[in-house]
Design goal:
The protein has a single domain, classed as Metal-dependent hydrolases (TIM Barrel, Alpha-Beta Barrel). The chain contains 9 helices and 8 strands. The model has no long low-confidence stretch (mean pLDDT 97). The protein has an 8-stranded parallel β-sheet. With 284 residues, it is an alpha/beta fold. Helix 5 packs parallel to helix 6 and helix 6 runs parallel beside helix 7. The chain is globular, with a radius of gyration of 17 Å.
């Protein structure tokens, strides 16, 4: 792994003593500080040259503070290459004030508003949500889609309705790997990949499998499918640390991806682990 230079498209940093993350209350393994030093320590032999910080679902009142906190960290450590910040996109045009504040932070290159926890499977195609996402094109910001497999159909429709916005699908759409189910996830992924404004993160898969007993063969059909559909020019590696620690360590996940894509060329490997993320998030 030492010759592999990685730009990780999906890393979380946080300190529950500084900002509020209500969803962590029942997950003690995650409900503690996870710092830059902690991340460096878990990478092991993997040479991570930089990463994209992705918002961590703070309490709504802490969204801007989270982005500002990470921007301060980035001023002292250039491994943080870009920020995907949280914003209340569901407010439609009323989200402008939040986007104005975020745009004042130069490293903010994208926005994520979590969809996965919404009980309405059509939440992301409500008119105000679509209007809020369309705003992102004015601000030159992308949108990270984070959904479970049963919400993918609506996510495809969202991307169709917002053709001027660049999207990236987090965690390959969170398929039901525990049960080994491929349908209808497989069909939705193909439909998503047919849209030229959508990219995909090869990330977060071990946590959708059996946390204690998964094998790389369990993940292989899903990895093969996203590679086939998106190609390496629209597929980017993501570690999803520290959420990933619920099911894997960082070197094991990297090794799994290397094994599953073992037949790719050096150019394709560089695209997957570095260049696609750098291009999508407009890194210097």
């Amino acid at each position: 792994m030492n010759d592999l230079a990685v730009i990780d498209s999906h890393v979380h940093l946080y300190d529950p003593a500084a900002l509020s993350y209500p969803w962590m209350a029942d997950i003690p393994q995650l409900n503690k500080p996870h710092s830059l030093a902690d991340f460096a320590a878990v990478c092991g032999p993997v040479r991570v040259e930089g990463f994209i910080f992705v918002e961590v679902d703070t309490a709504p009142g802490d969204r801007l503070a989270e982005a500002e906190w990470v921007a301060t960290l980035a001023s002292r450590d250039d491994r943080i290459k870009a920020i995907v910040a949280a914003a209340p996109i569901e407010l439609g045009d009323a989200a402008r004030a939040d986007l104005d504040n975020l745009k004042a932070l130069p490293l903010v290159r994208g926005v994520r508003r979590l969809i996965q926890s919404e009980p309405d499977p059509d939440f992301c195609i409500r008119p105000d949500f679509v209007a809020g996402v369309r705003l992102l094109a004015e601000y030159d910001l992308s949108f990270d889609i984070c959904v479970y497999h049963h919400q993918l159909g609506a996510a495809v429709e969202l991307a169709k309705r917002c053709g001027e916005v660049r999207f990236v699908l987090d965690h390959v759409g969170k398929p039901d790997i525990r049960s080994g189910s491929l349908a209808p996830w497989r069909e939705h992924i193909r439909a998503m990949a047919e849209l030229p404004n959508v990219w995909c993160k090869l990330s977060g898969m071990a946590t959708e499998a059996d946390h204690q007993n998964w094998t790389r063969d369990d993940l292989r059909p899903y990895i093969d499918h996203v590679v086939e559909c998106f190609g390496f020019d629209r597929l980017m590696f993501g570690g999803d640390w520290p959420v990933s620690t619920l099911a894997t360590d960082y070197p094991r996940w990297v090794d799994t991806v290397l094994w599953a894509t073992g037949s790719c060329s050096e150019i394709e490997r560089r695209q997957l682990f570095r260049d696609t993320a750098a291009g999508f998030y407009r890194l210097p």
